[in-house]
């Protein structure tokens, strides 16, 4: 049966590739290919799952392909199939099939019809890779695909201000979760001295023995996994991004943020449950987080003026309950709850426009006074206080901004003196001195040799922070991000066994994407008069091919799984020692801000209302 797993993964990939070559104007063929791809995949899933059940529902695991090998390290693709995969697979295929049929008519004659179906099929491929993943490395591939598809679908109406702005905001939260997963992989490599599979995590003796001698590392990995799951499933303190993700088309909102993508955090907790089930404090933390998320999301949902926002917060509340069920060890109940919540929220989002029109009619012609309930017994001061907090969504946006992005902006403004010319005169000589110290390391004291990697990583972090707040020069921002990657490579090069081949693996994707992206920026600047990062400029209107090519360069620079940089990031963190916490922290923070800065450059240049006024423009609030 294991050989059939490849077919279940190749079907969505084949359908996505076919959809790319279909002409944009041929809506009928494009929709038929999309529906038939998902429909055939659903049929294959049903047949496979029935055969799997009749064979005694064994846990299947395939070590499929080794992408990179080094002494003490191997990056390989691993697939796993069990009860959790079966539930997520069937629910995902069935709901995506329904959404595809619905979207054929809903998106008819929409300007981005082809782009919508291409992105949905790409999302479905990422979803399949994620739920079939047998280790964290394979899961991270699908995880990144889901993240970029979220950005593209939220910003689907790319000539409007708020969809693009909210897409960047959601991507920023996703990057926090991505780096939490990277750090979890980094520590797990040091804990197991291998790329541990989820199948091995079910070995109680193996896990218990390691956690007894490395309890602090085990707790840290569990907390990082919880942060990653919370960011993806919109749990506290990341809950505010989900209503903002509803700016995309209703079908994508239903499949992404009502049913599938928003439950991937639950999937991560279910997959890693054997690792943290003996850590009582972690289980309590997950349960408490789920409880308070449900409480806050419920009060917030009751005061929303938009039906999509109401459904979003209601879904967040139910996912909080699922977190509690997972923490309590009720796996079957959590899977049943996931399926029920996914079906319900998809249905609610698809019928929400009709429901709103019906309710408006009922208010005009059949007004019924509201009955008194238990809320009327709550003292007015408490009730009004809760109401104001709920209207403000408990200030979660301001909280994330205050603890993370605002300090970065403050530091960046203090570094405003670092123009590109000054960077060349100050940073480049320092980089050359760092390379010299790398090759003459035997002449440096051991204390200084151990201290230099963190210093170099910190310099790289300062450069990317400066890029993060850059508003005038696009070239400056892009070049500073590129320099940051070179400082990370230099910092990790001081650790043993990080040889030239591994440096080239990481640098190959960075250099190619960086150089081509810089040339594309020059081409846009030469074609347009006023190109800056002060506001959204919407140049995709006149330069769609240039925008697509630049997006690919942005993905390459962020370490998306289309370049060797994706593997190189994992290799870099593998060579960071477990006692080099500052180095790991600076590198992780650089990846967060670097990814956000790159996507912000793309969004500012190519998305949003077009800067020119010789054609019709949408209002900012549209």
Strand order of the largest sheet: 1-2
Class computed from helices, strands and strand pairing: mainly alpha
| Nearest-integer average pLDDT | 84
Report the total helices: 25
Q: Provide the succession of SSEs.
A: HHEEHHHHHHHHHHHHHHHHHHHHHHH
β-strand number: 2
Termini separation (Å)? Answer: 51 Å
Strand content: under 5%
Question: How do you describe this structure in short?
Answer:
With 622 residues, this protein is mainly alpha-helical. The chain has helices at residues 2-21, 27-54, 83-106, 113-132, 136-154, 161-192, 198-201, 204-213, 215-232, 241-244, 250-259, 264-271, 273-276, 280-301, 307-328, 331-365, 380-391, 396-414, 420-439, 446-468, 474-493, 500-527, 544-557, 565-574, 581-606; strands at residues 60-70, 73-81. The termini are far apart.
Describe what this molecule looks like in 3D:
- With 622 residues, this protein is mostly helical.
- It has two domains: 2-361, no CATH class; 415-606, no CATH class.
- Helices cover 73% and strands 3% of the residues.
- The chain has 25 helices and two strands.
- It has helices at residues 2-21, 27-54, 83-106, 113-132, 136-154, 161-192, 198-201, 204-213, 215-232, 241-244, 250-259, 264-271, 273-276, 280-301, 307-328, 331-365, 380-391, 396-414, 420-439, 446-468, 474-493, 500-527, 544-557, 565-574, 581-606; strands spanning 60-70, 73-81.
- A two-stranded antiparallel ribbon has the order 1-2.
- Strand 1 (60-70) and strand 2 (73-81) form a beta hairpin.
- Helix 1 runs antiparallel to helix 4, helix 2 (27-54) packs antiparallel against helix 3 and helix 23 (544-557) runs antiparallel to helix 25.
- The relative contact order is 0.08.
